[in-house]
Amino acid sequence: MSTVVSKDGTTITYDKRGHGPALVLVDGALCSRAQGPMPDVAEALADRFTVYNYDRRGRGDSGDAGDYAVEREIEDLAAVIEAAGGSAYVYGSSSGAALSLRAAAAGVPIEKLVAFEPPYVVDDSRKQIPRNWVADLQALEAGDAIKYFFTKGIGLPGIFVTMMKLMPAWKPMKAIAHTLPYDAQVLGQNCFGDPMDTEQWAPIEQPVLVVNGGKSPGWMKTSTRALAAAVPGAGHTEVPGQNHVIKAAAIAPVIAEFCAK
Question: What phi-psi label fits residue 250: left (phi over 0), alpha (psi between -120 and 50 degrees) or beta?
Answer without folding.
Answer: alpha
